[in-house]
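Newbie here. two chains, one complex. Structure please?
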Amino acid sequence: MHEWLMDIIFDLSEVQQALIMFGSMLLMIVLAVPIPIAVAIGTAIGYFMMDLNLVQVALSMYTGVEPFPLVTVPLFVFAGSLMEQGGMAKRIVDMAQSMIGNYTGSLGLVAVLGCAFFAALSGSGPATTAAIGAVMIPSMIKQKYDPAMGGAIAAAGGALGSLIPPSNLMIIYGIVAEQSIPRLFLAGFIPGFIATAMLMFTVYLIAKRRNYIGVGDEFSWARVRQSMLDGKWAILAPFIILGGIYSGAFTPTEAASVAVFYALLIGGVVYRELTLKKILVCLKVTAMISGAVLIIVGPAKAFGELMSLLSVPDMIGEALSDVTESPFLLLMIISVILIITGMFLESIAQIILLTPLLLPIVQALGIDPIVFGIVMVISCEVGFLTPPVGANLFVAARITNLGIDKISVAVLPFLLAYIAVLVFVSAFPSVVTWLPDLMYNTPR
Amino acid sequence: MWPFIEKHFEEILAGILVMFMASMVFFQVIMRYVFSLPTSWSDELAIYAMLWSVYISVAWAVRERAHIRVMNFIQLFPAKIALGLTIFSDFIWFVFGIFLTYQSVLLDLSFWKDEYRSPALDIDQKWPYMCLILGFGLMTLRIVQIYYRWIKYGEPLLTPRDEEDLPHA
């Protein structure tokens, strides 16, 4: 290495070093280098500028994936996938159908409600879109729904998968922010409920305007009872998963493994829909998430640590505190930032990268980390639904055989619904903390 | 035989590891509630299984072109320039893959020099850390393979080679 180059590098100020790291990562992302690799390149450049041993890059890749709670994520992906393939999704849709009955826009409402139910089994947004969308999108198209609208409803409903517990994004946030995962799960309930209601209201308005009439049988309690009886094993799943966690019987990780074997048992033995071939598909889905998504954890964590070392959070915090002192406005500003970055970053990557930078700032203004976690998750959900990197849009596009552009236009009204929830939660954070505080009897 | 290994090596290994990971965590629940014998070693094995499955899947995801990358910016350019930029970004990836493999080897060698054992299971850490070498080494080879088959057989650069539908993530 040339002496002069080294001189220049070691003369850089902290701000300049941080900007070079960030800039090189951004350049790599724009050049279409895979995002985890781009983050790792930014990190490696950071280590180099700080004259640290580059073996650290490899070490961070290993230690990032080492925390035990992380095992929960692939396990929930696997369980959700098994429940989808094993026939639970279908029964959940039947249940939702019986509850909605014959009502304006009933199929769209059923799709959203089905997504909300499936979200209580699954921790992932795209998986929920896939599970419910595969059943509901074809039937919506058959009832003369605009196919793009059908895809948009499934994509928007699927995003509930990350808000209604269990949730992979909350697990990741809990690990990075060192917050209790069961507490985060509880915090997601009420916002999830509000979001479901908002989405259903949006569907209703659209259906009314476009004249999507109701189909199916009239609502009757007998039918609800019958469908719930048929779907009893699916209803039982969230009780086992969440009940196990809150009674203290299982850790979230153990609950995820119980969910895997429960899904295998119900799908394989009770419903007899889970063939070996389908199990292999589910294993593939899980491995795919591991290889393409979890790989980001190590480099992203190291990147965040280097940024803290260069006191970037302090700098951003100072800059933001000049703008506002109000927690609500700060959350709004951060949400806008998150929504914009979420258009380009995969959501797990976004949470790992940005939590260490933003959490100290919001905590300085007295915002509860749990509330911030929920705000982050909802922002990520909006990211699921915005191109170019919107996972739910891709899944819906594949099911409808439409271009992602058509669906991303149709999904806009639902984006507004999520943004309304985001504003509501930021304005009234007690909506988020009320349930966990009640459950644990300890308002902090 | 070789085409089968080439096609399924990573997915079979990663699948077995995922299954093993799930079983280890579940095993612990069973031991605690059915036999009242809490174990701690199963956690550690589950973590190793996750690490290995993640890094083996990294290589597999190259073969299936499943890595998450933002193509939108380079696709703003005319097709020929976009192709050139794709090749350029794959080249950066390839070079960084060699770098990562090399650093992983150095890291592992350091564990050969100064032995480090895990507290719970007393496992010599040079073995689990080898997942990095295998994963990044295979990842780099898979990139080379894609270009080799692109030049030799005209196979696509950006979509998976086999038409069989990929599971949605």
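Moderator note: The longest helix of chain A spans residues 181-210. Chain A touches chain B through 65 residues (CB under 8 Å). Thread marked as resolved.
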